[in-house]
Amino acid sequence: MKTCAIVILNYNGEEMLARFLPSVVTNSQFDIWVIDNASTDQSIAFLEKEFPHVFLEKLNQNFGYAGGYNRGLEKFKGSYQYYILLNSDVEVTQGWDVTLINYLQENQNLAAVQPKILSAVDRHQFDYAGAGGGFLDSLYYPYCRGRIWNQIETDEGQYDDDCLVDWTSGACFAIRSDLFHELKGFDDHFFAHMEEIDLCLRIRQLGFDLAYTSKSTIYHLGGATLDRSSPKKLELNIRNSLSMIYKNLPASSFWWVFIQKGILELIAGIGYFFQGKSHLGKAVFQGYVGFFRQRSIFTPGTNKKKIPFLGPSSYVFIDFFFRRRKKFSEL
Q1: Segment 213-238 mean pLDDT
Q2: Glycosyltransferase 2-like domain: from which residue to which, for each copy (predicted)?
Q3: Residue 31: what are its φ and ψ, rounded to 5°?
């Protein structure tokens, strides 16, 4: 069994591969795989011509982030001890991969670890997706050291440390392969968005820890699949967040969280309409409709315990919008 596979999921990402894959090839020591989600552009031809030494796994349709990784990684089962899942729009630095794997090997109760994630657009700022480690509040809203909602911090060394986190970013994280397969990977029904947090909740239910280390650094472009202002992204985030909570909380706890989130997001949805952003307002309500349409697919978390979260904010929505706390250090 080999130590690690670096696995990049691709769908019509020829431009991203051309821009970012060279840094992965140059700075990595482990096998590099691309799982292709039935791209219709020239991604396959580009890889076969320019990077013939990069391994390629071709899927017969676009299964999304969750399904694409699940089907591709199933082919590797038993071949690698660890996986590093890496977005196609990421520039890596020297030794980034070995650092992550060494960190997992040195900390036996760890299931997964993410690096410091900075922006590929402004390399002095943290990236939206994961930043300096991810946390959840009592309503399961995600926030990060270095990013709360859309407020991004400048990297001034304030998170040059290691710490335990509530979730690791889907932009880049290393995970024990046996545990990934034991949990049957990501939930295919999510398609895209929130699936890594759902996986992290299930990992923590088993008693394992998740971590962030600043000893490994990457630069993430972000928005390669869906722009952050996309109504579809907003809809999927709301739908999948509710599904994630439904799966991972006892029923009585879920409905109390649902009511609180519903009030806050109803206010936000109405606010979008008043701001002339009706497409975003509709996306909020479509997220709720989508959850109820697919709720029967999921097994409610009746027998699961509520996991204590590690971050400082119980209500990050209120801290940010009403108490005007814009930085992690202010929470």
Answers
A1: 83
A2: 6-180
A3: -60, 140
The residue extents of the domains of the chain are: 2-220, 231-330
Report d(CA 18, CA 252) in Å as an integer.
49
Orientation of helix 278-294 relative to helix 231-248, angle to 10°: 30
> Residue 223: its pLDDT value, please?
60
Torsion of CA 22, 28, 33, 39, to 10 degrees: -30
Write the pLDDT tens digit of every residue in 92-129: 999 999 999 999 999 989 999 999 999 999 999 999 99
Three-state secondary structure call for residue 306: coil
Residues 126-153: what's their mean pLDDT? 96
Total residues belonging to the chain: 331
Stretch 178-190: mean pLDDT: 95
Q: Which of 169, 170, 144, 143 is nearest to 158 (CA)?
A: 144
Q: What residues are paired with 55 via a beta bridge?
A: 33
> In CATH terms, is domain 2-220 a member of 3.30.70.20?
no
| 53: Cβ contacts below 8 Å, ≥ 6 apart | 25
pTM score above 0.90: yes
Residue 267 half-sphere exposure, CB side, CA atoms within 13 Å? 8
Tell the burial category of 207 from Cβ atoms under 10 Å away from its Cβ (0-12, 13-18, 19+): exposed
User: pLDDT tens digit string along 285-311?
Assistant: 999 999 999 999 998 887 788 889 999
Q: Are 180 and 91 in contact (CB under 8 A)?
A: no
Phi/psi for 184 (5° steps) reads: 60, 30
For 319, the token pair is 């801290």
